[in-house]
Amino acid sequence: EPEVTQTPSHQVTQMGQEVILRCVPISNHLYFYWYRQILGQKVEFLVSFYNNEISEKSEIFDDQFSVERPDGSNFTLKIRSTKLEDSAMYFCASSADGTNTGELFFGEGSRLTVL
Amino acid sequence: AQSVAQPEDQVNVAEGNPLTVKCTYSVSGNPYLFWYVQYPNRGLQFLLKYITGDNLVKGSYGFEAEFNKSQTSFHLKKPSALVSDSALYFCAVRGIDSNYQLIWGAGTKLIIKP
Question: B58-86, pLDDT tens digit by residue?
């Protein structure tokens, strides 16, 4: 069964460092998303991406965040200068269509710990 | 503002008994409702959704959910719980208030005891 894969599964970094989280969406999917889940809190939408550009982003997704689809298979989330409060589980998701009724397929997450 | 509430942090059920995980929502217009499950150390996995039509929707692993418009609820149910159902369950809604991005409940930990 096709799945979304994410790397690394866990990354520990120092505050102020840059971090890149990688995702390989399901191959025929066209819509890509990043969500995050701070420990013990709700899942939060960060950004959606379609046709090589951001289609939607939340208030959380400020200038320190960026996304890219560099090679047609990977979908990356970059955090330029990490802060302690960026510590969370980051989930990548993809969907075959961008309709409001479609389900998302999630990766297993990348746990980011900022020290 | 659009919101989703899962009033129970944890639900404990004995194996073989029916289970219910509650979800209520607040959204303008017609909601699109989803349930996702998160097994330990795994990603979020789609279970079922309500878009339109029959209020009772069936999903993966024997789960079902009932959409109740008057009570603005979308409770997740299963007639006979399995130990393997133990996981974290998230209700989510899409509506015009959030420009159709998924808004998530806080999650309910379901523990099935043998």
Answer: 999 999 999 999 999 999 999 999 999 99
Other Cβ atoms within 10 Å of B17 Cβ, number: 12
Is B107 in CB contact (< 8 Å) with chain A? yes
Cβ distance A12 to A115 under 8 Å?
yes
- Dig out the tokens for A50 from the structure: 């379609």
Q: Which residue has the tokens 């959409």?
A: B67
Question: What is the Cα–Cα distance from B25 to B37, expressed in whole angstroms?
Answer: 18
Give the C-alpha separation, B103 to B92, whole Å.
Answer: 5
- By Cβ distance, the residue of B41, B43, B106 closest to A106 is B43
Higher pLDDT, B34 or A39: B34
Tens digits of residue pLDDT in A33-65: 999 999 878 889 999 999 899 998 999 999 999
A11 touches B: beta carbon within 8 Å? no
Chain A residues with CB-CB distance to B46 below 8 A: 103-105
Q: Find residue A5's DSSP bridge partners.
A: A24
Q: Is the dihedral of CA A103, A105, A109, A114 positive or negative?
A: negative
In the three-class reduction of DSSP (H, G, I as helix; E, B as strand; rest coil), residue A89 is classed as: strand
- Cα–Cα distance, B91 to B57 (Å, whole number): 14
A93 touching B (Cβ < 8 Å): yes
Return the residue matching tokens 């420990």. A39
